[in-house]
Amino acid sequence: MIMVKRVAMLALLLGLGSIAQAQGDPMLVNGAGATFPYPIYSKWFDEYHKLHPNIQINYQSIGSGGGIRQLLAGTVDFGASDGPMSDEQLGQAKVKVLHFPTVLGADVPTYNIPGVTQELKFTPDALAGIFLGKITKWNDPAITAPNAGVKLPADDIVVVHRSDGSGTSYIWTDYLSKVSEEWKTKVGKGTSVNWPVGLGGKGNEGVAGLVKQTPNSIGYVELIYAIQNNQPYGQVRNSSGTFVKADLASVTAAAAGTAKSMPDDFRVSITDPVGKTAYPIASFTWLLVPEKISDGAKKKAIVDFVRWMLKDGQKFAEPLAYAQIPKEVIEKEMKAIDRIQ
Amino acid sequence: MATSPIAVERAGPGWGPRTLLRRLRSGDEIAHLATLCFAASVILITTWLVYVLWVNSALPRHKFGLHFFLTSVWDPIFDQFGALPFIYGTLVTSAVALLLAVPAGLGAAIFLAELAPQRISDALTFVIDLLAAVPSVIYGLLGIFTVVPLLRKYVQPFLHSTLGFLPFFQGPHYGVGFLAAGVLLAVMVMPFIISVSREVLLAVPVDQREAALALGATRWEATWKVVVPYARIGILGSVFLALARALGETMAVTMVIGNNPQIKASLFAPGYTIAAVIANEFTEATGDLYLQALIELGLVLFLLTFILNGLARLLILLTTQRGTAQE
Amino acid sequence: MNYRLMWRKAVNGMMLGLTGVCALLAVSVLFFILGYLVWHGGKALNWDFFTKLPKPVGEEGGGMANAIVGSAKLLLLASLIGVPIGFFGGVYLAEFGGRTFAFLVRYTTDLLNGVPSIVIGIFAYSIVVLPFKHFSTLAGGVALGIMMIPITLRSTENFLRLVPRSLHEAAMALGASKWKTIATVVIPAAYRGVLTAILLSLARVAGESAPLLFTAFSNRFWSPGWGQPTASLPVMIFTYAIAPYEDWHRQAWAAGLVLLGLVLLTNLTARVLMSRGMSAQRS
Predict the structure, then answer these.
(1) Residue C50 falls within a domain, yes or no?
(2) Which of A4, A53, C176, C263 could serve as a FRET partner for B244 with CA atoms 20 to 30 Å apart?
(3) Domain-located, residue C10
(4) At A2, is the pLDDT very low, low, confident or very high (cuts 50, 70, 90)?
(5) Could you tell me the CATH number of the domain that includes residue C199?
(6) Which residues of A touch C58 (CB under 8 A)?
(7) Which residue of chain C has the CA closest to A204?
(8) pLDDT tens-place string over residues B95-107
(9) Angle, helix B84-110 to helix B288-326, in steps of 10 degrees
(10) Residues A174 and A188 sit within 8 Å (Cβ to Cβ)
(11) Which of A68, A163, A214 is facing B280, going by the closest CB pair?
(12) What's residue A269's pLDDT?
């Protein structure tokens, strides 16, 4: 009897609890995907929530692969990825998926070499060799050649890459595929590749964490992760032969070519671009939004957010070291938003 | 509602509609039926689980068949999936864990069951049982910030300099890797070995010990030469239980193993286990073949732990029964 | 002859010492874990931790209020699933069970107990997340609830069996039917043990993180109702521990301290309850 009473009380409490929460329920929109833009996205969603307290956009950074997968499975309302969806993946989608570029960012080679405080210069061959596992020591000629004056140790290089499906990996491997024939045939480009060597970290956060804690390591992360954690990152030689460091100017220069020639579906690669000041490993990152959203309230929330993001949100990008989208691309996107039903 | 025995008697056996109704009116049948449903739901859930695992791993089973267990390439881009690196990693980390935990655990169990005074034994056992309750993710948290740096700075260089001629202790000192995962697992399974072994040792009949002591053996000799061999089947059972636990450990392992699906002899190398790869890649397995390959790995893990747990319980049962049969 | 005896006594003493060291090693691990967590976590615990939501990436501050509430909701849901099935299943096995069916139930329960938590996560993903097309507290609760069943069931059965037959027979002799006997006499007599079992299984699943990774997922905000993703302490610890931000590490320690504290406290309560129950039964 006592048990019955207790169970009944519990059920009552639960019911009341649910009702209490349902009243004045903020609307929750769920998204998941890339860790590359996570810092700016979390800032945006926080700011947007302050402007619209009844809308909560819950974004989980599980990697671009995760964003694509969960969007295809229908378990999230929108996805995010720095590697655009392939034709095959788009074909798998039940509803057509639209790509919306949000910001421009860069993959930087971040390293942790005890005793080395200077900024290192990396050639494309050096990076490819390191990640292929062919260059194994820090004092290899390929690395020391452009870095005269820096004393590099004879220690083994610890390579760190992503263990999860990652758009940041996509950008990195896309670049390596363009500059190294061997990489292209042996490994290829993608969100999840068969890495020849190295430790795997989960998310940009995991890679940054591993590099920070492991001496003599090198990994690739989005620029802001290196900055926020005071990790040194190197310059990369671009297609014109100049060693460029990733920053707002060089990343914007990388996207300069696309302003006029952006395809309608916004899927474009800007790694290894033409341009003397362009940073070679930069990329757009995209929100993946279904063309048809059945829930009217959610659709309005997402559409309103994308509009806000393209107009007011862009100003938050630069303090976090992301470059703004070129004006022409923004205009094109505003028109594309109308395609969402 | 009828509660007197006479009413129960009147209900009686039979399946006709009127008798059924009469039986249902007596609370006993309802209680029996209700609790039976709950008990049956356990069987239902477990069968459903196996069914879901089986059905959702059909694609890779058909595509790769047994080759799944023999290939070591895990390449989502080219849709090649082989389970070998994960099986290897799971087995290696568990082996390291047992190598470290069994001697220490058995030693502790012997101390608690045979050699220590009652009060100390009870107090220490209490604390060790609490250790078994510490969540995996807390072990992982401590592992990242204490075990990994310790291994990288002191233990791995030491092992390299002393035992570096063995293939197990070669290679760069990452800190993370098979060794780190093995050490964490050892700490996690030790409480299980201790508690089960202690019970098994305590179950050994007193006259065995007394006979040995009467013949002039020291406490240690009586324990090591008589009691432990007597209980060795049960102790083996505890080892199997610990192994089953180690195989399924996810969080602590994935935080310190380095997440690299490769097969290397060196314990310093980063690796991957079945549970860790599922945890890392499940939410982002683009493509059905990829996702189902992960589920097939889950099925493999399930089967491994199933067999081990079954063996373990059989062994422990045998020991305790043998103990009572002798009396 | 004397030397031989001296040697054997020496070995005896040595082994006593060695095995004692093993036992002390095992015990000291717990104290090390506790001490480390108290030291690092204690420094990071503040009012904000319990009341604020997480801040955007890279910004200092914020807390884990939503994770604490999320964990509580998950455990509540898990109990609603795990406790009835475990409890009534245990009652069946102890009071009504036939030979083969009861054996089958026990066997499957032990089987379920040994299933790795990540596999249960896969199961819950397939049967709750996919059909509803949502990560949700419900899915997480289902996963944890399934994990609670075996412990609760076996323990309930064992404690009910411990109740002496004389109580059963006395009640029945007084004219009570079987179900009334069970409900009003047997179960109250065993309630301490059953409560202990429930507490222990709660403590066990409270720390589980793996099955929540793709069922309850995570949430930077409050999770309304039961159908949305929710943050939880174990998952937050995992996420924050592997990241590079010092502030996140701080919060991970604090969360670890809170989680471990709750788990150990529940375990201690359960054991104290049980030992008092035992002594009560003896007297």
Answers:
(1) no
(2) C263
(3) no
(4) low
(5) 1.10.3720.10
(6) 39, 224, 228, 320
(7) C243
(8) 999 999 999 999 9
(9) 30
(10) no
(11) A163
(12) 87
Q: Do B279 and C111 touch (CB under 8 A)?
A: no
Q: Dihedral of CA B136/B141/B147/B148: which sign?
A: positive
Residues of chain A with CATH 3.40.190.10: 29-105+283-339, 106-255
Smallest Cα distance from C19 to chain A, Å: 36
How near does any CA of chain B get to the CA of C74, in Å? 16
Searching chain B, which residue's CA lies closest to the CA of residue A92? B287
Tokens representing B28? Answer: 């006993």
CA–CA separation, A92 and A94 (whole Å): 6
Number of CB atoms found within 10 A of residue A245's CB: 16
pLDDT at A32 over 70: yes
Smallest Cβ–Cβ distance between A163 and the set B152, B172, B259 belongs to: B259
Give the neighbours of chain C: at least 3 Cβ pairs within 8 Å.
A, B
Give Cβ neighbours of residue C152 (< 8 Å, ≥ 6 apart).
C82, C83, C85, C86, C87, C90, C197, C198, C201
Share of chain A above pLDDT 90, in %: 34
Closest C-alpha among B98, B252, B281 to residue B176: B252
What residues of chain A lie within 8 A of the CB of C187, using their CB? Answer: 3
What does residue B312 show for φ and ψ, rounded to 5 degrees? -60, -50
Would you identify the CATH topology of the domain A29-105+283-339?
A: D-Maltodextrin-Binding Protein; domain 2 (3.40.190)
- Residue C9 CA from chain centroid, whole number: 45
Q: Identify the CATH homologous superfamily for domain B67-326.
A: MetI-like (1.10.3720.10)
Size of interface A-C (CB pairs under 8 A): 91
- Classified as helix, coil or strand, C235 is helix
Q: ipTM of the predicted structure?
A: 0.88
B38 touches chain A (CB under 8 A): no
Cβ neighbours around B92 below 10 Å, total: 22
Contact pairs from chain B to chain C, CB under 8 Å: 270
Number of structural domains, chain C?
1
Model confidence at B17: pLDDT above 80: no
CA distance A244 to A237: 6
Cα radius of gyration (chain B): 26
Decide if C56 is inside a domain.
Answer: no
**pLDDT, tens digit (0-9, with 9 covering 90-100), for C133-162:** 888 999 999 999 999 999 999 888 888 888
A46-92 per-position pLDDT tens digit: 899 989 988 989 998 888 888 888 888 888 899 999 888 888 888 88
Rounded-to-integer distance, Cα B260 and Cα B280, Å: 11
Q: Which domain holds residue C77?
A: 65-282
Provide the pLDDT for residue B7: 46
Helical ranges in C45-134 per DSSP H: 47-51, 65-91, 99-114, 117-124, 130-132
Note whether B140 contacts A: Cβ–Cβ < 8 A: no
Within B56-177, where are the H helices? Answer: 58-64, 84-110, 118-131, 136-142, 148-150, 156-163
Work out the minimum CA distance from B305 to partner chain C, whole angstroms.
6
Confidence band of A319 (pLDDT split at 50, 70, 90): confident
pLDDT at res. A232: 93
Predicted confidence band of residue A4 (pLDDT cuts 50, 70, 90) = low
Whether B174 and A195 lie within 8 Å, measured CB to CB: no
- The size of chain B, in residues, is 327
CATH code of the domain made up of A106-255 = 3.40.190.10
- Which among C29, C88, C122 has CB closest to B298? C122
Return the exposure string of C54-71: e unless at least 16 CB atoms fall within 10 Å of the residue's CB, then b.
Answer: bbbbbeeebbbbbbbebb
Average pLDDT, chain A: 86
- Does the structure show a pLDDT above 90 at A255? no
Q: Is residue C32 domain-resident?
A: no
Q: What is the pLDDT of residues B235-251, one digit of tens each?
A: 888 898 889 889 988 99
Question: Which pLDDT score is estimated for A22?
Answer: 46
